[in-house]
Design goal:
Chain lengths: 202, 202, 202, 202
DNA sequence: CATGAATGAGGGTTCATTCAT
DNA sequence: AATGAATGAACCCTCATTCAT
């Protein structure tokens, strides 16, 4: 996963697109003229840097997710205690999903996006990028948990990773559909997820 | 959640759309003319039964998910043992995701779909429909597990439901990205998920 | 050279295009919207009958030249005397070139047109179509001339055909650039061309 | 017909354009960026010397035809015998038309070009320029023919000029559509044209 | 009731031209 | 003077929707 260098026009396009997404615009309806306007550049300029609208959008998603996941990874690495790492992730998920634009939701529909855009670069696609970061985050959490004795080291790596992923998705699902759970508070949902994680890993 | 009665033209449209989706067509690129052709009706006829393309597609998704979830619920209810119910669900997930068109993937991007179509009917939306069925399936599984003594009845209903949902999504995630887990077989993934569920529920 | 059957929308497009050309519009600048307007049909309708603007224009040229040449051939066949046939052709050339739109000029740039449109149908192209008609017209004139004894039958067919073509192009050139020949009247130009023809064929 | 002095940037543009034309590019599709690249100058530089793309192309055509016709005129003047002059012209026509880019074809579509570019300079246009050179070439040939006694001096000047032009166009037509005359060799076509010329002029 | 021919608004893309460097 | 990055007007083509039959 090479981290490309982007010039300032490309980044202007990326930022313009995310400004729109954060305003609630839908990825599937977005117009080139809107992106150009949001990026404060001419419509034609986009075609000096990208071959098509689809490519521009796809590169923007890669860029944005790359940045965001790097940021998240850093934050998790900064924290030492196992439990705090998990709760930090809950917090990040919460903020992400509650915003107008959610990277997580984009990733859930990444398959659609890739089918739609017919872009299948061998070494760069949304899902692999995301999975790669998830693996790094999981590794960090697992080693921290093992040091603290929260994790039975006899479990396979897959077992441990999926236990973490599992409760993160569970919590994400809770946040996404909060209104379906009138009797469950966010803190309760966090505690439930954490308790389940501990039970699984012991 | 009223279960509407659809006439045969409407069902022809629904079936036509799913024929296309199963052929690998992308939901976001589908054309009215294609749907009409696949449904063996005239293009204009679609507009006698639906106000717009978007509505037709949205109704089709509701119809299809309704049917599929009803079917799944029946299958689960038919089975008695807790463990077999869970493994049956794994099997259903496996088949669903491996096909060209996956209801599960559609549900993951349901948020996008609803934003895209700007359809927010109060009492009928993809997610509520799905959650409703999930609740029924969970209830059935939970009571079966409680009878067998697999489940500690002191856990809250939310705890129990989310534990089940959690491992189902985990397994779905495994199937979706099998190629990322070269050293994990499907049977192993099923066993890991089941073990995790039991640990959570005990 | 099959004579295709065209439906009324196709003919509307053809007629619309020629209305524009006769108004002085240039073939290379014409817009789809202009053609549609001139044809009294919707812009999209053109694409129901032709794959592209280029194809529509090219088919129109084929259609128009086919019609015009058929008409000319008929007129020439109707006339008996050799000399009158030739003078009739002079008259046709005169009228054609003096109009706002000239088929003859189009044929002179037919090579350009075909390069431009990248259309090279095996059995239908502007030049072959034109050459075919020219051969028929030449044949008719030659046999008439031979009957009257104006033509030495010992000349090769190529010799006879090219003599005719030669003075026709010469006269066309005169009409096109009349203003360069201030001291030559049209009647003089006709007589010169005819005299030259007779000298060549004897 | 003043012979302008062009500076080296202007000539670079002219040469660049003809490089492209000789590579088979079509005059109607050529882009400014392509011309600039072929001329090894910046796109903006073209606009320092020409008001528009159209003007640049038009000036290039004038320049090129001027040069080419000067060259041809010189070659013809160098030769003394009437017949050799004519056959030299045949040779020039042959080479010209067989190349990727043909001045003669451009001149045939000169009317289109002038309509297209909306350039009607009073004292400088492609056709007048060409006609002027043709007049000079014709004069030279005619006086040579008269000296040799090939030409009946009683014919009008128009008669003599058009006889020459006539067989030159005839031969050009042959070369352009050689494939339509499978049974006629180039040498035969030359001889036919020359025989016809002699017959006309006697 | 059913159709599909016809429509035209809308949007992606191109490219001649400009202008800050 | 020379450049080429940036622009946005212009235009081809698509496709959801309509409506005469």
């Amino acid at each position: 996963m090479k981290s490309r260098k982007y010039n300032n026009k490309e980044i202007a396009v990326f930022d313009g697109l995310f400004t729109l997404l954060k305003q609630g615009k839908n990825l599937y309806n977005i117009k080139v003229s809107e992106i150009a306007k949001a990026a404060n550049i001419g419509k034609g300029t986009i075609y000096d840097y990208f071959d098509s609208k689809e490519e521009a959008i796809y590169m923007a998603l890669l860029y944005y997710i790359n940045n965001e996941m790097t940021q998240i990874l850093k934050e998790i690495e900064k924290i030492q205690p196992f439990k705090e790492k998990i709760y930090k992730l809950f917090e990040i998920i919460e903020q992400n999903i509650e915003g107008k634009y959610s990277t997580i939701k984009t990733l859930l529909s990444a398959g659609d996006i890739e089918t739609m855009y017919n872009i299948f670069e061998e070494d760069e696609n949304l899902i692999d990028l995301f999975m790669d970061y998830m693996a790094k985050i999981s590794s960090n959490i697992i080693s921290s948990g093992e040091k603290e004795g929260n994790i039975n080291i006899e479990h396979s790596y897959y077992y441990k990773r999926s236990a973490i992923k599992c409760i993160l998705i569970e919590f994400a699902s809770y946040v996404s559909h909060k209104d379906c759970y009138s009797d469950v508070t966010t803190d309760m949902a966090k505690d439930v997820a954490y308790t389940q994680l501990i039970k699984m890993l012991r």
